[in-house]
Design goal:
Belongs to the RbfA family. This is Ribosome-binding factor A. By secondary structure, the protein is α+β, with helices and mostly antiparallel strands. It has two domains: 93 residues, 2-Layer Sandwich (GMP Synthetase, Chain A, domain 3), CATH 3.30.300; 42 residues. A three-stranded mixed β-sheet has the order 1-2-3. Helix 1 crosses helix 3. The longest helix has 41 residues. It is flat and about 65 Å long. The termini are far apart.
Length: 142
């Protein structure tokens, strides 16, 4: 009977939970602020990890770059703390990557809303014309 999840996936989940706690409690750099750890991908040999993060609140690209530099600078410290809290033979080297999916999703949602709002007036005009034609045909029959 095959296992549902690989070891790398299970380690990824536990690393994600632990990193979210460690970043919140241990990283004191003001450039980082409030961080959401959205996903962690661990290599099959458990040696490397990609940590996808996004930030709470609006930030411009310069602030995001500074915060990512601060997180990547603290990756060795976080790796040491991670090794102390999770019992692993090999603690993965962490690489922090900014997760753009939230921004991209908001942008696509705004584009869809814009397309729908532009489409609605023409639909309303068509339905009004159809309604007037129906009224005219009803009055001619009576």
């Amino acid at each position: 009977m095959p296992r549902e999840f690989t070891r790398a996936e299970r380690v990824s989940d536990s690393v994600q939970q632990e990193l979210a706690t460690l970043i919140r409690s241990e990283v004191r750099d003001p450039r980082v602020g409030m961080v959401n750890v959205t996903e962690v991908q661990i290599s099959r040999d458990l040696a490397y990890g990609k940590v996808f993060v996004n930030f709470v609140g609006e930030r411009d690209q310069d602030q995001i770059d500074e915060a990512m530099a601060a997180l990547n600078g603290a990756s060795g410290y976080l790796r040491k703390l991670l090794g102390a809290s999770i019992q692993l033979r090999i603690v993965p080297k962490l690489n922090f990557i900014f997760d753009e999916t939230g921004r991209r999703g908001q942008h696509l949602s705004a584009l869809i809303d814009l397309a729908i709002s532009k489409e609605m007036p023409s639909d309303n005009a068509d339905s009004e014309e159809t309604a007037q034609q129906d009224l005219e045909s009803d009055s001619e029959e009576a």
